[in-house]
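Objective 1.3, modelling of assemblies. Example input:
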Amino acid sequence: MCGIVAYIGTKPAADLLVEGLKRLEYRGYDSAGVAVLGDHGIAMERAVGRVANVEARVDAAGDIFRGTLGLAHTRWATHGGVTEANCHPHTDDRNDICLIHNGIIENYGALRTWLQERGHTFKSETDTEVLAVLIGELYEGDLEAAVQAALKEVTGAYAIAVICAQEPDTLVCARKGSPLLIGVGSGEYVVASDASAIVAHTTQAFALDDYNVCKLTRDAIQTSTIDNQAVTPKMMQLEMDLEQIELGGHPHYMHKEIFEQPESLRMTLRGRIDKNEGRIVLGGLLSHASQLVRARKFILTGQGTALHAAMIGEYLFENLAKVPTEIEYASEFRYRNPIVEEGTVVAAISQSGETADTLAALTEAKDKGALALGVVNVVGSSISRETDAGVYLRVGPEIGVASTKAFTGQVAALTMMAIFLGRRRLMSVEECRAMLDELELVPEKIERILGSADTIKRVTEKYVNQENWLFLGRGYNYPTALEGALKLKEISYIHAEGMPAAEMKHGPIALITEGMPVVFIANRGAQYAKVLANIEEVRSRGGHVIAIATEGDTEITSLAEDVLYVPDITEPLSPLLTVVPLQLMAYYAAVARGHDVDKPRNLAKSVTVE
Ligand code: G6P
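Predicted structure (C-alpha cells):
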C-alpha cells in the first residue's frame, strides 16, 4: 500500500529518495513521485507505473533536483484513477505546500467544497490534494502550526510528510492510523512507512503516535500533539539489516522466503521450547499468564493469510488447550458489535502489525474490555504497541507480497500459545513433551519438502494452463486449503477456490469438468478415509487430483494423478508441512505464466486503509 519516504539532512535528497522508493516497492503501488526543495524551489516529477519511470524523469530534469530536503511516494490508488495528476506529491494551488500522504481523508468532500467556496482550485481527484490546499489556506508563516490546524479539521487516517517553499529547512510529518517511522541519523532524518527504507541510513528510529506531529530541521526534532503539547518520542533500535531485505541470489523474494522457512521457524521456536519441564516459554505472555489460563473464550482475528493462520489456531486452541475459540475477519468483527464478556481474550494476528482492519478490531476489543494479544512479526508496529501482551514471530522481514514464512511463523506461534495454555490447563508433561519433540523437528521436515521442489515444479507445470482450480482439505488442513487457493490467486491470477473437502458436494462439485486440477490435502490424519472418499467423487467427474500425502502412502497413488509427499507428523502440526508444497505450486505457476511474482497485480503487502 502507499509508501512514504522523506529526507532532510546534508546529502543529495533525490538519490536517497529514489533508493527509498525502491525499498518500498514491495508494499504494492501503481504510480510514484518525488519532490525536492532546493535553491530552485520545489522540483517535482511523478509518473504512472514503476519507480524506474519517475527515476528516469528525475535524472533527466538534472540540476533542479539538487537539494537536501524532499519527499517521495508510491501510490496505491484509493480516490481517483491511476493517472499522473493523481500521483503524489500533491501541491496546494499556490505551489507552496507539497505533501505526501498514506491513508484516507474521509471528509475530503466537505473540505473540498469549503475550499472551493474560498476560491481554491484543484488539479486532481484525490483526497490528499484537499489536505495540501487546506494546509496552504491555513499557512501563516509557520508550517508546523498550519499542519496542526489542518489536521484538527480532518477525519480519517493519515501518515503525511509536508514541506513548504518558504521554509527550506523544515520537514513536518504527522500520523493518525497509518504507520510512520522517523529514522534519526547524525544531522539527518529519514522518514518512512517502514524500516526497509531507513536501515541503509540509520538503525535509530521512533514510531510516531496517533495525533502527533513532528517537525524536523537539520539539527533538531520537535514532537507535539496536534494541540501543540510537547511529546517525548520513544527511541528504538531497528532490528533489520540490509542483507535481510536483499534477494541474496534468489530470483524473487517469495522464493527466498519459502526457502528460508526452516531457518525462520528455528528463530520462531528458539528459546521457547523447554523440554525438561515439558512446557513452552513465552516471555511476552508471562505478565498475563493467569488471566490467559482462566480465559473463557479466545477470539482470533486478522485478514488474508493471517486469518487462515487464525483458523488453524482455532483447531489448536480447542484441541490442545480445550478453550472455546472463535475466529473472525477483523473487518467484520469491528462493525458487528461483538459480544465481549468477562474472560474474553482477543488475539490479533498480523505480519505487518499495520493492517488497518486488524488494528481497528483490536481497539474495538480493548474498548469492550477484552484482554488484547498480538501475534505479530514487525517489532514496534502499531498492533504490537496496542496490545496488552503477545508473541513476536521473529521470522525476519517479509518482502514478498504473498505471505509465506510469516504464515508458518504465525501457525508455529499459535501452536506454542496453545501448548502454553494447554500445559497450564490440562495437558500432561508427557503429552506436552511429545508435542514439543515433534515441533522441534518441523524445520528439518520442511527442508525435506524443499528438497523436492523440482518435482513440485514439474507437477505444477502440467496444469498451469488450467484457469480453474479447487483446493480441498479437512480439519486442520481445511484452512491450509484456503491458503493454497489464496496463494495461487494472488500471484498467478488463476481462479482458485479453497473449501472443506466435504463442502464440495454441496454445490462446487458442479464446476468439476474433465481435467480440472483439484488439490487435496490428504495427509494421514483422523479424516484420511473421508478425504479418500472425496477424492473418488472428484475422479468420477473427470477432475485431475493432485494429492499432498504422507511419505510412505502408496494407497493414494492409485487415486491421484500426481502425489506430492510431506514427511509424517502429528496432525496438529501438519499444516506447517502441507502448506509448503502449496506455496511452491503457486510460485511455479506464476513464474510459468510469466508474472512478476514480487509485484502482483493490484495487491498491497500491508493494507493500511479499511
Ligand atoms: C494483505 C496482504 C496479505 C496479508 C494480509 C494481512 O491482504 O496482501 O498477504 O495476509 O494483508 O496482512 P498482515 O500484515 O496483517 O498479516
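The chain has 19 helices and 26 strands.
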